[in-house]
Automatic annotation (TrEMBL):
Keywords: Membrane, Transmembrane, Transmembrane helix. The chain crosses the membrane at residues 12-28, 66-85. Pfam families: VWA. InterPro entries: VWF_A, vWFA_dom_sf. Residues 101-286 form the VWFA domain. The lineage of its organism: Bacteria, Bacillati, Actinomycetota, Actinomycetes, Micrococcales. This is VWA domain-containing protein. SUPFAM superfamilies: vWA-like. It comes from the Bacteria. It comes from Terrabacter lapilli.
């Protein structure tokens, strides 16, 4: 962050207030001068009085008190005007983000129902291990739907994953979570889901390393638009590494073998969910990809800073009270 110095939100208040104060002071001065001229009367032989040391001392003290009173009033009024103009501290924030993007891709078909809540918990654990990376979430069944696009707002990400956990846990108030996932023919269209995840990355940003955490049992039940082999080729063409997370591996079944071969072909890795090292393995593999810090768009941050005008107004008020009391005495 870079401090850009103090500023005023409403500088016109200070300008207009200063002009009004000057005109007001001039009008009061003219009126008092005319009243003093009319009230003045010549007094003969007054030199003997005005030359006395006590008179000279009292006159000097009076002038000092009046000067203090005037300066304190100006300080009080000026500080009040500055406070009314709302002083701000302006800070230029130049955020940096890590050049890695991660799409969480979750199969929510019927064969995954027993595992999805656990997988969402796994996703939350993964999110806690990352710092600065952008993360998105796509769910799919007969069609794919984006729950949230790539973002580095981790509070938002965790809130959305909490919503996903409630929905997948059977909360009837969270049924809208599944909107957009039943628009195709069949269920568990693996290739369509993976292709949607791969296509969710920025099309023009080639600086970022891209990864998909693909949670599925790879049990196809329908006719996808894009089969899983084509989706894998799309991932390779776009430079996306796929990390497979299979919750239903009971030995080297055909679907598990195919999934392992396809994800490793993209440069990613395959993990059964029962593998205790899966989370650490995915995080280490993603972080092993070269990443540089990218400067995001600068933004101005404003914070109220009334300390100085309040302090000056208090000082001016003390001066006005003190000078007025001593002058009146």
């Amino acid at each position: 962050m870079e401090l850009n110095g103090p500023d005023l939100e409403w500088p016109a208040v200070l300008a207009v207030g200063t002009v009004v104060a000057i005109l007001g002071a001039y009008a009061v001065h003219r009126r008092l001068s005319r009243r003093s001229a009319r009230a003045a009367a010549p007094v003969a032989n007054s030199e003997a009085l005005t030359s006395l040391p006590e008179y000279q001392r009292a006159l000097r003290l009076h002038r000092v008190r009046m000067a203090v009173l005037a300066l304190s009033a100006v300080l009080l009024g000026g500080a009040a005007l500055v406070g009314a103009a709302r002083p701000l501290d302006t800070t230029i924030d130049k955020p940096q983000t890590r050049s890695r993007d991660i799409m969480l891709c979750l199969d929510i078909s019927g064969s995954m129902a027993a595992y999805d809540a656990t997988l969402v918990s796994t996703f939350k654990t993964l999110v806690k291990r990352f710092e600065g990376e952008r993360i998105g979430l796509v769910i799919f069944n007969s069609s794919a739907a984006t729950v949230f696009p790539l973002t580095d707002d981790y509070d938002f990400i965790n809130d959305e994953l909490d919503t996903a956990a409630r929905a997948l846990g059977g909360d009837p108030e969270s049924e809208s979570f599944f909107a957009g996932t039943f628009n195709g023919r069949g269920t568990s269209l693996i290739g369509d889901g993976l292709a949607t995840c791969v296509s969710s990355f920025d099309k023009v940003d080639t600086q970022r390393a891209r990864s998909v955490v693909f949670a599925t049992d790879n049990h196809l039940a329908g006719r996808p638009i894009i089969d899983v082999e084509q989706a894998t080729e799309l991932a390779k063409a776009k430079g996306v590494r796929v990390y497979g997370l299979n919750p239903e591996e009971n030995g080297p079944d055909e679907e598990a073998v195919q999934m392992r071969e396809l994800v490793t072909d993209t440069g990613g890795h395959y993990f059964p969910m029962s593998d205790q090292t899966a989370i650490r393995g995915i995080v280490d593999s993603v972080e092993a990809q070269e990443a540089t810090l990218i400067d995001a768009a600068s933004r101005s941050l404003y914070s109220d800073n009334p300390t100085l005008p309040i302090a000056l107004a208090g000082l001016g008020l003390l001066g006005v009270i003190g000078a007025s009391r001593r002058w009146a005495s």
